[in-house]
Amino acid sequence: MSTIKPQTGFLAFFDILGYKQIIMNNDIHKTAQLVSDTLVNIPTTIINNVRAIEQNAIDGPDSEQSAWKSTLAKIDWLIFSDSILVSLPFDPQASLIELLQAYAAFVTVCATLLNKTFEAGFPLRGAISVGEFFIEERTFAGKPIINAYRTAQELEFSGCILDDDANNFISQLRKEVVQKGLSNLLTMLDQTTILYMVPQKDDTSDRRRTINWVSLALPGFSKIEGNVRDHVTTSFLKHNKIAVPQVQGKINNTEMFVRHVLTNLKIQPWSI
Question: Quick one: which of 81, 97, 61, 94 has its CA closest to 13?
Fold first, then answer.
């Protein structure tokens, strides 16, 4: 028997809001087509979009662009039913720049996933954690997987937050970035996440570092323009979903988050 080798890295768990309604309110042929067109193809679509960043945001020699491609190639996807597991292993002893490049790749992939699925009528909620985990085909285990799942289940809007472990990890990297005056990397950190009072199931709000899936200037990123309320409502109602009372709250909360990002986060270019 081969020895199980856990990895250290970033781990994100997402689930689709309203997935049960999609199953119940559409025939099996339409549901199968929706899943095939969106969920099955989304990993390849997203990686291709994010890979294109190298042409616009990586100011450096070919070796740096190659490192970006190599990092993206390590991102693993596991899609089962209404859940999506995304992971990226990294060397915890790597340099600050290497760790930040891993984070930049992972967070832009997660932001693009949230953006693309929202546009397609599959709003997601999720959480990112960091630590040791094991994934082998469709078998997985590890504290960050459990933490990301539990954290995501408490959210009452379409979005993704960093759990305590991921937030502490990124906060430490941010301190080092500030100390070393790495302005481009600081811009990346401040563009990809925003602090927000996140609504939770127990009717409380918690100030958390939240992924900006609304307004990043990335290739293939769908900008939210025009009537924000209509845009958000359309995503939640696509595919014959119904805005029952518990869904209406998520619509309101998501709209407020989108407006907060559009109002308070001025997008600036950044490089790896």
Answer: 81
